[in-house]
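Example 323.
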Amino acid sequence: MAYHIMYVDDVFPAFKDLMLETAPSSLTLSFAKELKDKEYDEVLKKVDAIVVATEVVDEHTINQAENLKFIQKTGVGIDNIDVEAANRKGVPVANTPGMNATGVAELTILLTLALYRNLLYVHEHTVQGDWPMWDVRLESYEMAGKIHGLIGLGNIGKETAKRSQAFGTTVFYYDKFRLPVEEEERLGLVYKPFQELIAEADILSLHVPLLPETKHLLSMGEFMTMKPNTILINVARGGIVDEAALAKALATKEIAGAAIDVWEGEPVNKNNPLLSMDQVIATSHIGAGTKDTLKKVLNTAFTNTESYLAGKETAHIINQVNV
Ligand code: NAD
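Predicted structure in complex with nicotinamide-adenine-dinucleotide:
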């Protein structure tokens, strides 16, 4: 049996090759961004499943796909998918939890070290022929001995904790679900209520989903309670941080620096004041952006999709319509 799948995000040539290599022969792939309007409408009507990364899959798309049986996210955060609309249509939505945890955890450490060592400044001046050996020496720091506060201790938070501990930090975490104390002891983690965590962390990294209750979780009030040496690493979702407040907090030195991989609007507007601040490192939603991650994610996404369409038990369905 052959099933028709539509991939709805932009697709770059090498990534398209990887998708075609990874997809089992039972799945026929169409790429939405390669289709003209009318052709797109016709193909969408017939597809059995949509595979999506960060493109918005709204109610209109879900209803237009008359034959739709399954939506598969290649990643974790499903805030770009109208899950309620999928529920109403009886369409399961699955994600690929944990597959991208290594990539995002490694990026968290990379951004922390890059901020602490003023890496971008040193690189820029060295390649220009300067020798910035002393310029930032007294404003450079080690992770060892610092408190790393994690907001969210799911797959990515846990992988980040392990890596951070290897650099000699003490890891505090806040999550809406606290681990059993024996588990905290086994992992060497200290639970802190949210307000205490943000007030005590030197390094603060975000690993929660964007939900109504996490929207602008960090705004001016929170920045004002942080220590002036705190650096913020947002590798979760843009809307969790109030960007306007963050720009003010950095300008008034409420906190020392920020690395931002995810933005309130993506691609980030080039006039966003955060982009021109010395204490900011900006990246373009690359947390899970490695070939290693992509292979793991695509394998899981296609296995899920094929299993569901073939009527087999399917992993990682996040809504309640598994009929
Ligand atoms: P996960 O589901 O394994 O963990 C999320 C954790 O957040 C859970 O432990 C959950 O209990 C906690 N949580 C949820 N709501 C909360 C709240 N209101 N307050 C406190 N804790 C709360 O997910 P994950 O794989 O660790 O990913 C976390 C997030 O990272 C994703 O939702 C996604 O938005 C983001 N992400 C970003 C990238 C990137 O490229 N930068 C890649 C993958 C994931």
